[in-house]
Design a protein that fits this description.
344 residues; mainly alpha; 3 domains; 77% helix
């Protein structure tokens, strides 16, 4: 119909032809871990040194949001200035440190009196990082790369190879991917070119990327071992006991934490219900469905329970965050294995 012509033209004009990176979740994990670690180190240092101000009594105050912005600028500049995937690990690391310094002062941005100690600031920071983690998790699970995007990623890696910046481990990994793609357009020519590339010793950024591969490899091996179920059980017990202890502490502290207490109780109750449903599925040998319920439990804790915990006890919430990330890593790899076994 003629009326659909302008609408289709507008849709085509607004569409962003973006090719997704297969390493996006790895780089985002580096970014989040660097940012959270920076916040914890910064706050610990300031508490131990009595919150000194750069500039002293001169009337100047150099807030650490400024070096944070400069580090984010450096990370962006690396991405703008160099081609190929080589600079991305170090850009993710520097950008994460810079963003941690930036968002650590969010209390000053949202209060009229520039209150660095604004209590809800911790919850704001937590929501931002939880959103990033969950977004990356959903991206990996629900939107796998197409064959064409895999070929495009291999071509991106070839850039490093032609410049003499490609390690043999990475080259072999991409060659296996291209072998599996078979006759997909561009796969065979790229395979031939990559086979002729001379590998080199890993650089510091590539070693950083390999570190994350080892972490995910550990989760994958653990998910496929006979210790997977006991480890999951221990993590869920630690999660529930930790929330219970914080709840008791909040209840004893008085009514000022009534909203936080309600949030922690609601999140913990929902997580336990999901665990119970998962155990029920596990007993019927429906492992994929069981792991799905376990995943919902971990996400509920991450997005609800820990948010309220952060408002009351940052250290307890950080510990809960570590447990939830371990659960998501283990459950995610377990689901991938269960799905592969089911499709065979």
């Amino acid at each position: 119909m003629p009326s659909q012509g302008p609408a289709r033209s507008l849709q085509h004009a607004l569409r962003l032809d973006l090719v997704r990176s297969e390493k996006a979740s790895v780089h985002l994990t580096t970014f989040v871990v660097a940012a959270v670690s920076t916040i914890l180190v910064t706050r610990a240092y300031l508490a131990l040194t009595g919150y000194p101000q750069i500039g002293g009594d001169s009337g100047l105050h150099v807030a650490h949001v400024l070096p944070g912005g400069l580090l984010m600028l450096v990370g962006l500049t690396l991405g703008f200035s160099y081609i190929g995937p080589g600079p991305r690990p170090i850009a993710a690391l520097l950008g994460g440190i810079g963003f941690g310094l930036f968002i650590d002062e969010v209390g000053k941005f949202v209060t009229a009196d520039n209150d660095y100690f604004f209590e809800p600031a911790a919850a704001i920071m937590y929501v931002v990082f939880a959103g990033l983690v969950v977004g990356a998790h959903a991206w990996r699970r629900y939107r796998p790369l197409t064959d064409e995007e895999k070929v495009a990623n291999a071509a991106h890696v070839l850039v490093d190879g032609l410049a003499g910046r490609l390690t043999d481990t990475r080259r072999q990994e991409v060659l296996r991917t291209l072998d599996a793609l078979g006759d997909v357009r561009g796969a065979r020519p790229l395979h031939e070119l990559l086979s002729q590339v001379e590998p080199r010793t890993p650089t510091v950024p590539q070693r950083l990327e390999r570190l994350w591969h080892r972490v995910w490899g550990l989760f994958d091996r653990l998910a496929g071992s006979r210790f997977a179920a006991p480890v999951l059980g221990v993590l869920f017990v630690v999660q529930a006991v930790g929330a219970a202890l914080v709840t008791i502490g909040l209840w004893r502290s008085g009514s000022s934490y009534a909203i936080t207490l309600s949030g922690v109780l609601t999140g913990t109750a929902a997580s336990l219900v999901f665990v119970a449903l998962g155990l029920r599925r596990w007993r019927t040998h429906d492992r994929h469905s069981a792991l799905g319920w376990f995943q919902r439990s971990a996400l509920t804790s991450l997005l609800l329970t820990q948010v309220f915990l952060f408002a009351a006890s940052q250290f307890a919430a950080v510990a809960g965050l570590a447990v939830d990330l371990a659960l998501l890593g283990l459950v995610g790899n377990g689901r991938a294995r269960a799905l592969a076994d089911r499709d065979r």
